[in-house]
Amino acid sequence: MSKGTFRIVVQEMDEFFNDMKKDLKTLERKGKIRNEKVLALPLKEIYNILSGKRLELLRILSNEEIKSIYALAKRVDRNTKNVYDDVHLLKKYDLIEDISSNGKRIIKPKYKELLVNIPM
Q1: What is the domain extent for residue 33?
Q2: What is the CATH number of the domain that holds 9?
Q3: How many structural domains does the chain have?
Q4: Whole-model pTM over 0.90
């Protein structure tokens, strides 16, 4: 089931860890931190993860009930192995999941929207 927002931030690892330290200090002080999933990666890696073909898969999975990788590959007219690799990568970054719906397994995005923050 789609939930919330997945925010992707372009930043280097040391900057990411500094932000995490701030969040932990806020947690100690106020007892709460941001309620969102955050992935911090270099811009080149974000472009790799969110390629045009992978974004197309996310859009289709968001709007249709796709029951298998084979069905998804047929839907986008791509090689099954390539779609399998893309689905595996999207799962690795926690962008999609397998869920049960009416006793059937379907593939769905985990989030309603993706936000990409690119600091200037």
Answers
A1: 5-117
A2: 1.10.10.10
A3: 1
A4: no
